[in-house]
Amino acid sequence: MNTSSFKNLTRLIEILIGLELIALSVSMFFEPHAIAAGGATGIAILVQELFKLPLAVTLLIFNIFMLILALIFLDRVATAKITFGSFVLPIFLALTPNTMIIKNPLLSDIIGSILFGLGLSMLYRVGSSSGGTTVPPMILNKLFHIRNANSLFAIDGIVCLGNIFVSGFEQFFLALLSVGISTIVLNYIQTGLDKKLVVYIMSETQMEAIKKALDKQIDTGSTVFDVRGGHSNRPKEMLMLVTETQEYRNILNIIYKIDQNAFILTDSVAEVHNGSFY
């Protein structure tokens, strides 16, 4: 198997796992407690509660309708990205047992939300989608330049509100909690699990000593920038290094032992590619 075929196979497996995680979260954690936590699957749960129509059937009909809209308003590339998930997710929902694993609604909601967020992150990482309510935001963005995140938030909010009229206020608040947890999980995974800190250091008199001390005591490389003071207009040096979070306090102690007046600016970074820490 050549490299290209292996990558395609890996991508397909990741998409299938992501879709099944979503199906598991809906069938075993959300639906048994009638929690419609946004999206097309949330709409399917509301329809099932009202009309007893199977989840998979509702979702398939809804996704086909969304695909038709995508073909009309979006380009072929965008439509292709959502086609596979639009048909496979309903199949997985039909095959996944609809069983209440956890009787406590809150615990079930939390676990289901984590699984849902994991599934979405796997799809987004390979440029795929489960279809459904991801289509209207794309259309609104193209026609009216409304941000995808804003319109998707509004759609999820409307679906969550549906819980009040179908299942009650408890399911409404559980649905809101689910959307929040899923979003946090999705964003956290998308921006990297192995977060680092980037530290910028400036010293009026002890820059060279700080640089030598950090090189000697901390297992991380550094970069020196030539900068200019905004007020004094004098040339200065600024040291930048990327480090693990657990090393941060040690770095501060090293710097302040040398120069109590050193300027330090710290920010978190999601991912670091290439380069060297050593």
Automatic annotation (TrEMBL):
Keyword terms: Cell membrane, Membrane, Transmembrane, Transmembrane helix
Stretches assigned to coiled coil: none
Membrane topology label: Multi-pass membrane protein
Gene3D superfamilies in UniProt: 3.30.70.120
Top-level taxon in the UniProt lineage: Bacteria
A cellular-component GO term for this protein: plasma membrane
InterPro entries tied to this protein: DUF2179, N-reg_PII/ATP_PRibTrfase_C, UPF0750_membrane, YitT
Subcellular location: Cell membrane
Chief localisation class: membrane
Ranges of residues in domain DUF2179: 221-273
Transmembrane helix is among the record's keywords: yes
CDD domains: YitT_C (cd16380)
Residue ranges of the TM segments: 12-30, 50-74, 81-100, 106-127, 148-166, 172-189
Protein name: YitT family protein
Lineage: Bacteria, Bacillati, Bacillota, Bacilli, Lactobacillales
